[in-house]
Write a structure and sequence with these properties.
The chain is about 50% helix and about 10% strand. The protein starts with a helix and ends with a helix. The strands form four sheets. Strands 1, 4, 5, 6, 9, 10, 11, 12 and 13 form a nine-stranded mixed β-sheet that branches. Strands 14-15-16-17-18 form a five-stranded antiparallel β-sheet. A two-stranded antiparallel sheet has the order 2-3. The protein is globular, with a radius of gyration of 29 Å. It is an alpha/beta fold and about 650 residues long. It is built from 26 helices and 18 strands. Bound molecules: (2R)-2,3-dihydroxypropyl phosphate (GP9) and manganese (II) ion. The site of (2R)-2,3-dihydroxypropyl phosphate has 9 residues, from α15. Manganese (II) ion binds next to α15.
Amino acid sequence: MNGKILFSEPPAYAKSDRGGIISLENIIYGLMIAVLWFKFHSFDKAVFPRHVLTLITAVGGLGTLLTVMAPALLIPRGARGIALVALDALLSMLILTDTLYARFYSDLFSLRNIGLSSYAWEIASSITTLFRWRDAAYFLDIPIFAALAWTAAKRDAWRGFSWIRAAAVLVMATLGAAGTAWRIYDYDMNVSGAITTLWDRPSVAADTGTLVYHAADALNILYDAMTRMRFDDDDSKVLAEWLLSRNGRRANTEKTFGAGHGKNLIMIQVESLQSFIVGLKAGNVEVAPNINRLIGQSICFPVVFSQTAAGNSSDSELMANASLYPTSRGAAFMRFASNSYRSIGTELASMGYSTVAFHGDRPGFWNRNHMYPSLGFDRYISMKNFRMEESIGLGLSDRSFFNQSMGYIRELRDAGKPFFAFLVTLTSHYPFNFKELAEQVRDIPLGDADETLVGDYIRSIAYVDEQIGNFIEALDDEGLLDESVVVLYGDHPAIPRGDHGALSSLLGRDLSSQAAWRSILSVPLVIRLPRGNSAAMKNTPAGQIDIAPSVAAIMGFSIPTAMGQNLLAPGIDNAERLLVFRSGSYIKNGVWIEQGNKTAFDMRTYKETEYSEEMARHASEAAKQLMFSDMLLEGGMSGRLKHFILRAENK
Ligand code: GP9
Ligand code: MN
């Protein structure tokens, strides 16, 4: 090879196309970015009425495109045109996938849910009804860019590698990433937790633009993969033995064990229902007479501390169904929907039950459409299936929700198999002042709390109480009440601490101190056995993590991976045990230990007490429990972990 050929001047036609900023290659690249940006922008405008184009959304979207597209400029010349056109096709496919998801689920596609096939197939099988010919417009540019790329190749217009080129690519990708990061950071500042949990994908995309939503989704996945727990067989064995030792302690000799065996299970998670509602009267008017009546016929734990974290309602569902703690980052429902869980649903399904979840929101909210099958539900009846005859707040009104759910429950009964119906209510959601709700609520004399958020809360709980009353009555009329175990609990507290004044005046208790405020952060758990058997008030404090093992015991089985305890088992000392929160804080012997700043509050005297050595020791036990739960989530009950747990279970 001689130097003359290598370093000789390129032919004249090639020289003109390759040279300068306005080269054919740069024109193709710049045009492609502009067209792709326009496609995503048109999608955002069409799907999210509230989406507005601002400098920051434009920079975020362009930034994401630059980050993805710039590295393609370093691909060898021969393949570069093909790579760029392929990237265009891939991103256009992403818009089409989002379009179909939006039509089918009112949701956006998440890279996390690749491989969760049941729902992908649902979309695939209805593709002919979902697809509109105008969707083809997203692909119209591809043949044009293919022709341009081919022309560029013919004219030898793709430039070879140079360090200047590499530096330009680096600058573009960095600027692009900075633009995306700016958008994500700004959004996260305004809606804390929305990006890490992505609880409501369309809502994030409506504000940030779909491109930035996908960037945030991909970054979350990358971050999780990088920080994923690694543990070996020995660690799995330790976990399995620990679980077994706890199962061993549950002697299952209590008279309620198996009391619901073969009966239906109807479990109701009530949005924002807090403990202080139980028995509460405002100006001599009972706020929740129907829940109170149900409690009179039930085993009731009025003080169940809420252990939810960033996953809010969905964390509560995870604990009530599978007795696993919320995940350390983000929401388990989003991150671990592909796991095989051991839960009330999986165990009852294996015993021949029909298992159905009901919730009047969009199916993709909290990723429920992907998580529910993993929790053992055969069907999920959501906004997609209910008639949206009355909407309040986030979705279907509780009134219509219970009415329509009753219709499905009748069908389940008529099918002749026992069933597990899991109902998640929605209307009593923050900020509790939905216009349509105000028109239907009872008049409750609220005194100073009237016209406050607390007043709105009380009225919205009174509304859901009325719906629950009607539902229980309908169950009774259908002869189902005594053929079922009915469980009801609150998902999490919902009144912000800033509103303690109005609540103090309503409850007639000073809630201004930190300890006093903590005392109201609990929810009630109500378990009605057939014919109201064994009804009792159990005042010992418990945690939401205990709901699943307690319900399981009543149905006559145990969940081997449960982190909580069967509250009805004899010999369980609820005061002695650790009640662990995701933050690593815990309650023991009536003292709330705040692990973050090493403070302790006595929940009986509401006084701060000294943080002792012993408390630090218990904190490591609390951390161990959280770690075991994380192992179950992150290990996904797969491979060796599953094997050890099964072996320990069968010992
Ligand atoms: C959304 C509903 C509320 O579907 O369950 O969720 P939250 O905001 O309480 O987590
Ligand atoms: Mn909730």
